[in-house]
Amino acid sequence: MTNLASHQTASLNTAAIASFAGDIPGLAGDLRSDHAGEAGAVAIYIGILAVCRDPEIRQFATAHLATEREHLAHMEALLQPAQRSLLLPIWRVAGWLTGALPALVSSRAVYATIDAVETFVDQHYEDQVRKLPSDGPGGVLRSLLVACQADEVHHRDEARGARPGSDGILLRSWQWLVEAGSALAVSAARRI
Q1: What is the mean pLDDT of the chain?
Q2: How far apart are CA 186 and CA 9, in angstroms?
Q3: Sequential DSSP letters for 44-78
Q4: pTM of the model
């Protein structure tokens, strides 16, 4: 994440969010889903690292885990604990499994999983960015989400570049399941 985004977000906290949250429909749910998603992303990489011994995949997962932990810290600063998803334990287990299961299969399965997750997350952040103003506290939040989105796109592109060629039906089905599960998790986290 850029230093600019980190510097700007120092002023972004729960009070700043509360000052404009009523002006943006669904903002509280969006931020709750962002927090849950970043918690799940951290768990994905922890799951990969728990079972994978491939040095290339471990390096990939370690680097991305650091970024996702930074994203999670930003999201935690935006929400009081009582505002976070009550389903966080489920998101953490689901994330861990989403990382560990493909890591047991192959490096290609890991990269395909990250591609699927980050493709979904790119659109998820884009939908939110479009609702936010470009200035004031909402603009600072917008900058944070744009920076997070850029990191996620980088993760997606890195995963795509690591697996040239086409995926078979099983891997494409797994990717569909991961994207559908991500959409279901976002829908639930927005509400609960």
Answers
A1: 91
A2: 23
A3: HHHHHHHH---HHHHHHHHHHHHHHHHHHHHHHHH
A4: 0.91
